[in-house]
Design goal:
Helix content is 24%, strand content 29%. β9 and β10 form a beta hairpin. The longest helix is centred in the middle third of the chain and has 17 residues. The N and C termini lie far apart (54 Å).
Length: 258
């Protein structure tokens, strides 16, 4: 099986290196990851400039490329240009920091997995809820265990669905288990620091902090991770609110005459 590995932290990030090392026993690893960090790039793709690509030799991979583009660019190129053989699995990560709740709307890590699902590849995004490099080996081992369990039982996701996995940033002995979860709210106290460049032009640096979650539902992803469980959230990219379709139809919008 060919396994496509990507991320948004860049091809040299310790998270993707730990992932390659751990998954090498499961199949042929193909790495296509950004040349530079693309955190919070969302599902952007490059349309207005060429995408430079550098072929690499990385231990543990059969083939590897660094792509001067977004995570979604990496997946598109790997599937459409780099490889003629199909991928049996796409794993995006291991992200440096969590992707919980509404983080998934901004995350390049999750967007790479969404792109994989759009292209018909069973896909998962994996994030470590910590910025401590010492926990990456544990996160990579847990990711491998999940993949083995899914494939051993021959469970396959629907074509419009991916798994968003968040692993607590603690030693393996302190992880209590796994929970299948739903997305929760993720609030930030956004602030902008205004500065002036040497030419007198204003510019801004975005900063801020996470608002402590008020959620107590154990089935919410952020709560599960806080309680030291690995959170596994099935995501779909159909954002339609089906509960409101009939209500919106009753607004009479079809009667508007242009």
């Amino acid at each position: 099986m060919h396994i496509l590995v990507t991320n948004d932290d860049g091809y040299m990030a310790p998270g993707i290196q730990a992932l390659v090392k751990s998954l090498a026993e499961l199949g042929n690893i193909v790495l296509a990851a950004p040349l530079e960090e693309q955190s919070a790039s969302g599902h952007g793709i490059t349309l207005r400039q060429p995408i430079q690509v550098r072929e690499l030799s990385i231990p543990g991979t059969d083939k590897a490329w660094a792509v001067a583009g977004t995570p979604a660019d990496c997946v598109k190129l790997a599937v459409k240009e780099f490889m003629s053989e199909p991928f049996g699995l796409l794993v995006s990560g291991i992200n440096n920091g969590p992707n919980l709740g509404t983080d998934v709307l901004y995350s390049g890590t999750v967007s790479a997995a969404i792109e994989g699902a759009l292209l018909g590849i069973p896909s998962m995004a994996v994030s470590l809820a910590s910025y401590e490099y010492s926990f990456y080996a544990t996160a990579a081992h847990i990711t491998k265990q999940l993949i083995q369990q899914i494939y051993h039982k021959q469970r396959f996701l629907p074509p419009d669905t991916l798994l968003n996995i968040n692993i607590p940033g603690v030693a393996q002995a302190k992880i209590k288990g796994f929970r299948v979860t739903k997305l929760g709210a993720r609030e930030y106290a956004d602030e902008f620091e205004k500065r002036t460049d040497p030419r007198g032009n204003s510019y801004y640096w975005m900063k801020g902090s996470i608002v402590p979650p008020q959620e107590k539902d154990p089935d919410v992803d952020a709560v599960a991770v806080e309680e030291k469980y690995v959170s596994i959230t099935p995501l779909q990219f159909d954002l339609t609110n089906y509960n409101l379709v009939k209500q919106v139809e009753e607004w009479g919008l079809g009667d508007i005459r242009l």
